[in-house]
Amino acid sequence: MRVLFAVSDWPGHWHAMVPLGWALRAAGHDVRVVCAPSQTEPLTRAGLTPVPILDGGWDMALQGRLQNYVDARDGQWRLPGLPPHPVTGEPLASLDEFDMDAWFTGHHPRLVEAATGSTDRAVAFGRAWRPDLVVHERFSLEGPLVAGVLGVPSAVHLWGPCGPDDSEPGFISLPLDFSGAFDRYGLPPLTARTLTHVIDPSPAGVAPPLLTAERMPVRYVPYNGPGSAPPDLPGPSGRPRVCVVWGTSLTRMYGPASFAVPEALAGLADLDAEVVVAVTGADRERLGTVPPNARVVGHTPLHLLLPSCAAVVHHGGAGVVMTSLAAGVPQLAVSHGLDQAVNARRVAGAGAGRVVEAP
Predict the structure, then answer these.
(1) Which of 147, 182, 217 is the last residue of a domain?
(2) Structural domain boundaries, residue 311
(3) What does the pLDDT read at residue 257?
(4) 10 neighbors 139 (Cβ within 8 angstroms)
(5) In-domain check, residue 223
(6) Quick one: which H or E segment has residue 198?
(7) Cα distance between residue 198 and residue 218, in whole Å
(8) CA 216, 148, 13, 79: dihedral to nearest 10 degrees?
C-alpha cells in the first residue's frame, strides 16, 4: 500500500506522525511525505522519505505574530508591553509601526501564488504516485485536497489534545485556502466536517471533542527529534527532579516578555530539588544566572529526560504535554493562548496538572 503523508512547515505539527510512519514502513508499506524544502532534513533524520514540493512561504511564526498584533490592536493582548513586530520579530514601540492592511494588500498576491503552486504540485504528485491512503496533520491543506481529488480515504493526525472542532480566540483550527484550491478542483470547501476520520494520540481523559468525525485512537509514542541523553544526566538522585521546558517558538511569536523560565527558576531555587532546564537557541542566552540547584541541558529529547522527573513546568506546547502524559509526570503549564491554552486546560481538567495564565 502507498501512503501519502502531508505536513505543514512546522516540525511540532508532524512529530506525532513519525511513529505511524515507522509502523507503516515496518509493515511493508511505502510512505512518502509531501512537505516544504525546509522539512527535508528533519524528515530524513526521522527516517521518513520527504517529497519537498510545497512552497512553505506562510511561516507559522509569522502567522502567530500577525494574530498577536491584531489582538493588541483590538485590546485583547494580555502580556506586558506590545507584541513583536509581525514581520521582523523585533520589539514594537508603537502599533503604528506596522500597517496590517497595507501588508496584506502587498503580500496577498505572493500568498496566492505560493498556495497555488503548492496545491497544484501536490495534486500532480498524487496523480502520478497514486496513493491508497492520505494522512495529514491539521494545518496541511494539501493532504485533504489530494485525497478529495483522487477519491481516496484520508485521515487527519492530531499532534495533541487540540482538535479540528476546537475554537479559541484568534486561533485558526484549519489551514487557509488562499488560492481557492478546493473550488478550483471542484471540491466543497474544507471545514471540520470535511474531515471524516481523526487519528487521535491523546489519552481519553484529554481527548478533544469531535462533532462528526470518527475518532481513531492510537497510543502516543513520543518522538521529539533525534538526540542522545546527556552523559552527565544519570537516573533519579536522592532529590526529586523538576524539569523546566520552554519552546523556542513562544518567544518568536510572543516576544521576550513571554519567557517565564527565570521566574520559574526563582520559584524553584529554595526547594530541595534538582532542577533541569531544557532550553535552546536564543532562549538560553536569556536565562542569565541559574540557581545552584539548576543545570541547563539544552537540546535533549524529552522522552529521554521526563521519565526521571517528579514534575515538569512548561509553556503548554503539544509535544511536551503529550510526552509528559506518556511519562506520567505532573505538569504545570504557563498558558499564553492558541492551542497551548487548550492543551493546558485539558491537562488540568483531567487532573494531570495545573495551569496558570501568563502574567
Answers:
(1) 217
(2) 241-357
(3) 79
(4) yes
(5) no
(6) strand 197-200
(7) 10
(8) -110
Helix extents (H) in the chain: 11-14, 18-26, 40-45, 60-73, 100-129, 142-150, 181-184, 248-254, 261-268, 282-286, 302-305, 318-327, 338-349
Average pLDDT on 272-298 reads: 86
- Structure letter (DSSP) for residue 37: G
**Grid coordinates belonging to 263:** 521566574
Confidence check: pLDDT of 234 > 60: no
Distance CA 240, CA 272 (A): 8
Does residue 146 lie within any of the structural domains? Answer: yes
pTM: 0.92
Structural Rg of the chain based on CA atoms? 21
Tell me which residue of 62, 59, 87, 84 sits closest to 72, measured CA to CA: 84
Strongest mean pLDDT among 9-13, 154-158, 249-253, 297-301: 154-158
CATH at residue 269: 3.40.50.2000
Residues 288 and 141 in one domain: no
Residue 353 makes CB contacts below 8 A (sequence gap 6+) with 324, 330, 331, 332, 333, 344, 347
Rounded Cα distance, 222 and 244, in Å: 18
DSSP classification of residue 269:
T
Report which of 195, 168, 169, 190 is spatially closest to residue 179, judged by C-alpha positions: 190
List the grid coordinates of 80.
Answer: 506586558
Q: Same domain, yes or no, for 246 and 287?
A: yes
Whose CA is closest to 63, among 13, 14, 117?
13
3-state secondary structure (DSSP) of residue 354: strand
Percent of the residues in the chain that have a pLDDT greater than 90, as a whole number: 60
Cα–Cα distance, 289 to 298 (Å, whole number): 15
- Strands laid side by side in the 294-296 sheet: 294-296, 274-278, 241-245, 311-314, 331-335, 353-357
Give the pLDDT mean for 244-264.
85
My answer on whether 50 and 187 are in the same domain is yes
